[in-house]
Model the fold of this input.
Amino acid sequence: MKSSLKAVVGIAATVFFLWLALRNVEWREVASHLREANWLLLGAAVLVSTLGMHVRAMRWKPLLEPVAPGVPFRARIAGVFIGFGANNVFPARLGEFARTWVLAREARVPLTGAFASLVLERALDGMVMIVFLLISMSMPGFPEIGSGGDNVRMAVRVVTAVTAAALLLLLCMAFLPARTVRLVERMARLLPLAFRRPLVDAMHAFLGGLHVLRNPRLLAVSVAWAVFQWTFLAGSFVLAFRAFGIDEPGFLGAVFLQSVIAVAVSLPAGPGFFGPFEAASVWGLGLWGVDASRAASFAIGFHLGGWLTVTLGGVYYAARLKLRWSDLGRVEETVEQAVEEDLDVDAKPA
Done:
């Protein structure tokens, strides 16, 4: 799908989800809740959420070890902030490409290997989110979902099936690398000669990034980091709940809500994932009887706070690395070109 079409679809999805989230909201009440919020607690929630970027940079290390052991933390944290900051500003999730490109540029990591580490990271995130979702929904304190319960359970099954299929595919590729390469070589015969070798070489590097799945130690460390990260981030939700006078869900609700939001923001959306975040928040908190206006005030305050700090962090690291945001806006084409032509990643985006 072309980037322009992705952008249009994302913006349309954002408008739809914002309408879905805010159609029953009383804006005077939202303004009142925002004025009366405990800004100290909200600031603490945003701080914990932003520190989650550092946790993500730390958990990236074992995922990168098979292709680039010893990648310095400064390169990883720069890639994380610039990547997520780019997702907040640009459409079509360009941040994933930006994160890969920054790491390759600063730490000489193969692009395809770095990208494989992100694919594996997302797969582990999905696995942990599903486990958290199922655990929270099975706890005694979880409320009745109501008339839409069958739809919710069906959605959980679909997400579980998709994540399991993705993990199974990655496992097959990791444990059957020779067969995977042979399959790619057969498929490459359909392409012009100039593209065959780069494609096969890229697959070799990608498979190297999946070696974590064949190493019990690295896999255990990576899973542990994923569990820690999402448990840590649940604490930011608890603080944000308290900031807006939402006492009922507690930690159970935080675990559930962040899992629902993680699924929601995986859907097409505009920059910053505005829309899916708010819709998931209003729906999820509604299960505990939180009215739409208070839930919307939580979503708006917490989301904007996190958006601002992460975006500013991305700007800071981009400035340190002497990158321009206009460069990052074209980074998808740069990464694709570098992979296809085996270019030097030190080159600036065209």
Observations:
- The chain has one domain: 3-341.
